[in-house]
TrEMBL record:
This is Dihydrolipoyl dehydrogenase. The lineage of its organism: Bacteria, Bacillati, Bacillota, Bacilli, Bacillales. Belongs to the class-I pyridine nucleotide-disulfide oxidoreductase family. SUPFAM superfamilies: FAD/NAD(P)-binding domain, FAD/NAD-linked reductases, dimerisation (C-terminal) domain. Keywords: Disulfide bond, FAD, Flavoprotein, NAD, Nucleotide-binding, Oxidoreductase, Pyruvate, Redox-active center. It comes from Halalkalibacterium halodurans (strain ATCC BAA-125 / DSM 18197 / FERM 7344 / JCM 9153 / C-125).
Amino acid sequence: MVVGEVAVEVDTVVVGGGPGGYTAAIRLGQLGKSVVLIEKNQLGGVCLNRGCIPSKALIQMAEKFDELTHLKEMGVELPGKPASIDLHKWQKWKQEITTKLNTGIHQLCQQNGVTVVTGEAHFLSSHRVGVETGNAFDVYKFEHAIVATGSSPRSLPFAEVDHTYILDSTSALELTEVPRSLSIVGGGYIGMELGLAFAKLGSAVTIVEMSPHILPATAPHISREVLNKAEKLGVTIKSSTSVEHLTVNDGYVELIVQSNGEQETLQSEKALMTVGRSPNTKGLGLEQVGVFFNEDGTLPINEECRTNIDHIFAIGDVTEGPALAHKASKQGIVAAEVIGGLPSAIDSSYIPYVVFTDPQIAGVGLTAKQAQEQGHRVKTARFPFQANGLALVASKPDGFAEVIVDEESHLLLGFHIVGADASNLIGEGVLALELGARVEDVALTVHPHPTFSEGWLGAAEAALGHAIHVVNK
């Protein structure tokens, strides 16, 4: 198609088919809008195909493999040879999962009247977008557009990812053999999740983190639980350490690191770069359209997810704040409903986060420090899983549940948990904060026994000074 000759007219163009983009497109279809969803690779984006789902598939497999070593103390004797790992079979299993989910998204788009276009989009004007689809170039004229192009792994300027020796998170999840040794640059959530998983599979893992402690975005007393488990797994943690240089020699990666003015050379079979992610906002033509950018490349938006160009919206990793799939999905629904004429907005700050380390970490709302900075008189109470029956039976006694409470009003301000199944348990905290619950509301709610959810009950009771299963302070 010749540019400018014929343009297909649609209500909305959604650029990017990840969790935010396809959710927005489906909601627009439900609202009766004509919508074109443009994705240059696969629907589901990084999260489904190269991130969230594949990484959790690795973590699940590694956890089950690691549990085999603890079965003997429960009385289970495994006959025959020791268990082994076949990453070729795991890759096939992982691909079956992502394919199933990808197919489901395609079907949902089709059933909701969404036109899916595979290609690379570029804004030609404030109301036109061109899409390169193989040998063709199609043009769409839109009333509204949603930018949902996600993010990509960052790299160090002296450590170009070659996907053979120097990996990013995508190539790490495509390995067909467990590396004998693995150096990980970055001790944030991606580095720690993958590092612990590979350690369980038998890799000698070293994690290099510039901050004083791993998982710098979480409170030290929470990340300390993960640090303890990492050390039990034999992971070497080098905090307050920077990588000065990285080279590949004779089939090994050599990292020159520095800590307290002293240099050291680390050698490993592979090196994994997990130094953050950057928003995919360059090369879309948004600058020419007049869309404003923040210094970090993200797009500033209002509570309706509008950019400074009123009819162009932005959602997900291209916006400010944490890069979370569920945040993107919520923003996608809001943007779609605003376009559809409904009174919708991002009116809540209660977006939970989850880190799939061992033990898992999850949280929502304020930390104790944040609450104090906002002027609250804070009461913090924890319940350790060492006092939880199911945690002991499951051989997962690490961690605790913690509630942050306003001492005067007893209003719940935050829920934080480190322990087994934290990713599922945090839902109770999100709902409690959304409902404006007081700590009594949780303490008076009957929690089933024996479950990990009793951790919230114990923490709430402790905040009120009448915990049953721990000594009250």
